[in-house]
Every structure is written in C-alpha cells, then in structure tokens.
Amino acid sequence: MIQVIHRALDILEFVGSNNNTPKLLSEIARQLQLKPGTCANIVKTLTLRGYLDKLDSQKGYQLGRQVFSLTENSGYQQLLIDAADEVMAKTVAELHENVLLAILKNENRLVIHRKNSAQLVQANTPDEKKAYDSSTGRLLIAMLPDDQLERYVHEYGLPSASLWPHAHTKQRFLQQIQKIRNDGYALIEDSVQIVGIAAPVYRSGKVVASLSIYIPSFRVNAATRTKMIRLGTRAAKKISTALSVS
Questions:
Q1: Which residues are CB-contacts of 165 (< 8 A; sequence separation ≥ 6)?
Q2: What is the mean pLDDT of residues 125-138?
Q3: What architecture does CATH give domain 74-244?
Q4: What are the φ and ψ backbone dihedral angles of 27, each rounded to 5 degrees?
Q5: What is the mean pLDDT of the segment spanning 94-105?
C-alpha cells in the first residue's frame, strides 16, 4: 500500500465532495488528519498537474480541469453547454456567423458545442484540432496558470512556425501569450481562409472554456473584426456570469 497515493486520492475525494465550495489548505489537512507540510506538498503537486485549481480570490482549492478531462466528464460539459446555449444563439442571430464553445484536451482543443449561422458559405473547423492552430486553443493555453503553462510546453513543445507564426521560439511564444492575456482575447488571422476570435469563459475565477466566433476571411473587414471582438468578449462574460450562479 502506497500511503502518499491514498492521501492524494483522499484529498481529491474530499475537495470533490462539494466542488462548489473551495476547500482551504488548513481545512483539508484537518479533515484528513494530515500534517500541514505533508498536505501542502501533495496539494502543490496535484495543483501543478492540473488536478486541483487554486482560487486566489478565495484562497481555496477546487477540482481542476485534468480531473474532468480523464473521462471527458459529460456532466461538467453539459453544465457549460447549458450556460452557453442561449448566449451563443443570440450571438449568431446578431452577427450571422458561426460560434463555438471549446475546452482544452491535452494538446488539442475540443469543441463541445456549436451554433451555426444560415450563411451559404460558412467557416468550418473540426471538433478536435491542435490547440496551437486555433484561436480557442491559443486562448486556453495562454490563460493557463504559469506553472501549468510551463508544464504544457514541456510536455507538448513549442508550436511550429506553420501552426503559430511568430510563436515558434520561447521568447516569441511568451510574447504572444502575454499579448493574449493583456488583450483578454485571442485573434487568429494567419489563416488564408478563416478569421477567428476567442474569449475566455470563467468559473470561480478560472478559465474553463473558450467562446469563439469564426468567419470566412473574405467577409472580414475592420468593422467586422471590431464587432467580432465586442460580441465575442461580451458573450463569454455572459456565460461566465451564468456559470457563477450554477
């Protein structure tokens, strides 16, 4: 019997018993009768691996995205879809372009919900593709906490110049990451066919999904681009608000 594995599982089970209420480190240690130092080390490792999320605003821990990605948790995905469905439909009606909701799955971004327009010519994108090669994927990667971002790059490497121009070296990659964080959205225009904007969807202070509007490049001009950014960021904020009360 490997004691540390049992302790790690005990922590995940305790935090997950009521995941809507963040658990303080001291509370975890007290409830599971762990020494504070031992508990802190295990929690730190689980957080680094993405199995726990630290909520700085509340100084507590919740289950992280990696827990849900193990089984592609349908219940959790349905929670996101329910919060996003009406907002996405209204965005499509206003802009007459396609909208999707996506999450990060290992090195790919995975679409979990779509709303398509009635346009004769539409921008199409597969349900699963390299995260570096999409606005939603770039946004989700950029919004990872620094330690998880470092682990992501260590595991999957930097993007090639063909997938993400101007981000194929460590310095340029970090510059692109910082730009997305500063802007609050990711805009991809390096494709000759599609222009996409992605905005972050938050729950409990953490980015859990990305809302994207994507348009055939021949229909995009300066005014359209501005409207995409405005509607995309607004829609993502509305979904985040809906999740905060779910």
A1: 190
A2: 92
A3: 2-Layer Sandwich (3.30)
A4: -65, -40
A5: 93
